[in-house]
């Protein structure tokens, strides 16, 4: 398959590691540079749509098949921004740093009738997938970032150190990483912006951002 990656070099590397060498990969930094590749691409992995939501119009202009990183913005919100009928087939996916390498790819549907097509694509990519609702944060990013936010509250309150929290979570829950290790791998920017998007979407007090996390986000 000809796969176009819209994002950073690390995103291209993640796709290459996940899907293997038999595919042909291209990468662009911005959506405005993607047009010349879209006609000849079998598949698009768009990691940065939340940075350029106005560029979602590109999927109205070309009949692409695209996986859209919907950790911070849902497919429904993106489609709502457009004024035209959607030409592309779109799926949401968990595109947070390091998460694509997981054995099962977390995916959401815009149209239920696209599920057979999704199954064919994932079979060709040789990856398993899990269907989740089209909601900001999907499932795993929502849970992990909420745990990270709570860990920041614990440090802010002076209850435990970051090192102790990481160790306790790994030993007590058998998580592969502690909250602060996970935050470092994902990036403070992504964690903060995802929780902010969750709070805007739900107004749930569970997603109120810890001031210490906000402070670190602003420093970065």
From TrEMBL:
Domain of life, per lineage: Bacteria
InterPro entries associated with the record: 3HC_DH_C, 6-PGluconate_DH-like_C_sf, 6PGD_dom2
Positions of the 3-hydroxyacyl-CoA dehydrogenase C-terminal domain: 137-215
GO biological process, any: fatty acid metabolic process
GO molecular function: oxidoreductase activity, acting on the CH-OH group of donors, NAD or NADP as acceptor
PANTHER family membership: 3-HYDROXYACYL-COA DEHYDROGENASE FAMILY PROTEIN, 3-HYDROXYBUTYRYL-COA DEHYDROGENASE
Name of the featured protein: 3-hydroxybutyryl-CoA dehydrogenase
